[in-house]
Structure formats: structure tokens, C-alpha cells
Amino acid sequence: MTVCERAARVFAEVFGIDPDGVWCAPGRVNLIGEHVDYAGGLCLPMALPHVTAVAVRTRSDGRLRLHSDGFDPVDADLFGDRVDGWGGYVAGVAWALDVPGFTGADIAVVSDVPVGAGLSSSAALEAATALAFASLYMLPSDEAGRDALARACVRAENEYVGAPTGGMDQQIALRARAGHAMLLDCADGRAEHIPFDAQTHGVTVLVIDTGTGHRLVDGRYGDRRAEVDAAARRAGPLRDLSSPPALDDTVLRRRARHVVTEIARVRDAVAVLRAGAVRDLGPILDASHRSLRDDFEVSCPELDVAADAARAAGAFGARMVGGGFGGSVLALCDTGDVPRIEEAARTAAAGRGFPRPSFLEAVPSSGARRC
Ligand code: ADP
Ligand code: MG
Hints:
Layout: H1 3-15, E1 21-30, E2 42-43, E3 45-58, E4 63-68, E5 74-77, H2 87-97, E6 105-111, H3 121-136, H4 143-161, H5 168-175, E7 180-185, E8 190-195, E9 203-209, H6 220-235, H7 250-274, H8 281-295, H9 301-312, E10 317-321, E11 328-334, H10 338-351, E12 358-361, E13 369-370
Parallel strand pairs: 4-6
Antiparallel strand pairs: 1-3, 1-13, 2-7, 3-6, 4-5, 7-8, 9-11, 9-12, 10-11
């Protein structure tokens, strides 16, 4: 049974009636361009085959009732209560879209996107919810409409939930195309779909989930945002610089150097993909990891150990992905080397007493859709 089918079934079990419809949106992995979205930079995410599905039925009494297995159920007054916890991601989207005529809903959520693994389960939930509301209330969902929905999802996460994420996760969840990575210009939301056919080259994008959850709302992610803002106040928009700025403050100088060099690496990666030289992404990924670890200081031992193990076992390149301080590593490798790399990552983690990692293969998939 697909995730979408399960969402419809769970809805019927929980609410005793069929939903009006089911919508889903994918998790994502960012090939390159990490921690640059809020600096108005470039990034190159792709959607995962893993999705979060929402089965939705509208209500007319102002209540929002939510169910997701493994999470506390939510029953809130849409116009009175502020919804805390996971329900905030859904209530926040309703709030940000401010849909005329919206008077409540019952929603069942089912997902196979790992939660808190740096693969953007939060944006998958927001994007599926936003597309559902768009379908039910006739909001535009063409390319421009999806950009607007993504921006509403960002407001939901920033202003309602209080997690200061950029805009990449929501944009890719709504706008991804199968078989492509998406070059996203975070300054204006423009997207270009770049064919990414690793599979036909015998190459796999392997995601190693270290099993160490990150916490975006615990402050360190926000600290980096503030540092990047401070660097930009001194040096001008980092996005426009062709080389790292010479700032007096050594911390801000390193943060800015990460942003400027990472944006350059995104351009290099796009050139490599356009030339059909997928394996040449490897050194670019390695350089990104070093920059995130040493200049931006958002890696952690679990991520470093996983990336090193993957490289030692034959990956062309590996880097941490997502906000950092835990979460996942992306490794690019020959498809035949996947078992060896998985074994190496497990052994390395066990040797350090880290949690046992889990794995998924990232095949570039489509954005939010009606099931
Ligand atoms: P990530 O987006 O990397 O997975 P976040 O910390 O940004 O991690 O978002 C994870 C949070 O999103 C969860 O703690 C939960 O509140 C919410 N969430 C994500 N997926 C689901 C789901 N399937 N059901 C309920 N809540 C979810
Ligand atoms: Mg998230």
C-alpha cells in the first residue's frame, strides 16, 4: 500500500468517514548549496521518492483535528487556540495562506520521510497541507502559485512554529520535477530544472541517516543566520561577492567564506551536471563538507565519521546535508559500492558508540501532487 493509500485508510479509521482527497509532498536532499538559502544564495536540491501524505476533509465548525501515528492528536479551535507542537506546521500553513472561506478540517498524516533527519519532513508536511488547501479552495497551483504556496509554508515555519529556516525546503517540496535537481535562486525564488540522471551513469546518491536528530529550534541554526546577516551588513550581500570578504571579525569572516565559496560550488556543480560528468560532483561535495565543518561549524562527530567512512569505502564524495548538528550525510558512489559503503558507515558508527545509521537511495522525484 502506498503512503497515499495509507493516509486515506487511516483517515477513514480515525474520523469514520472518507476524506475529500489526499495530497502528498516529498522530503528532499540538497546536492549542494547548504546554509545559503537565507543569504539569498543558490542551492541545488532534489526531491526524494519519500513523501508525506495528508488526507483532508473540510469542516464548517472552526475546528482543526489532526492525526499522525506516533504523535499526540490535535483538536484545536482554529480561531482561538495557538496550536503547539507538530500541529503547528499544519495550523501555520492555514494561518499563512489565510484561505478565504476556510472553516476547519480533519487531517490524517502518513509519511515515510524520516523525521528530524535533515531530509525536511517539516516542509513535506507543510507543502502537502498547502497543496491540499490550494486544491480545496481554488488557489493557483501553477508554477507561480506553487512559489506563493512555498512562501506561505516558510511563513508558517518561521512565524508560526518559530523555526528560522530559509526557503529551499518548501520550494523543492512544491516545485521539484522527477529526474531533475532544481537550481533555486533564493534571492527571487527563480528555479531552473537541471537533468540529473545519476542512475543511468551507474551512480547512486546514498543518504546516510546518522540517527542523531537535529533541533532547528534550539538556537544554533538561528545563531548562524544571525552571523550571516551580520557579515552581510558589513560586507554587502554575500551573494554578490566573487571572493570571500576580508572581515576583521574572524568568526564572521569564516561564516562569510562558507557562504561565498558554497555558492561558487553550486555553480560548479551545475556545470558538471550539464557536462554529464556526474562523478565529478565528488570533490565538490567533499569541499562543501570541509567548509560546513571548519568555516561554518555546523557538523558534528557523527556526520564527520559517516562522511569519512563513505569516502574511505569508495564514495566519490560525501558531505553533511541539512541544517547540521546531526541528521544525514549524502554520499555519491558507484551503485555497486552501496553495500560496501553502508557496511563501512555502520562499522565506523559502532566503533565510536554512535547510533546505528540507516540508509536510503535518493532518486530525484516529483514535487507536491494530488495522490
Ligand atoms: P526535518 O524537517 O529535517 O525532518 P524538523 O525539525 O525541521 O526536521 O521537522 C520535524 C518536525 O516536523 C517534527 O518534530 C514534527 O513536529 C513535524 N513533522 C514532520 N513530519 C511529521 C509527521 N509525519 N507527522 C507529524 N509531524 C511531523
Ligand atoms: Mg525541517
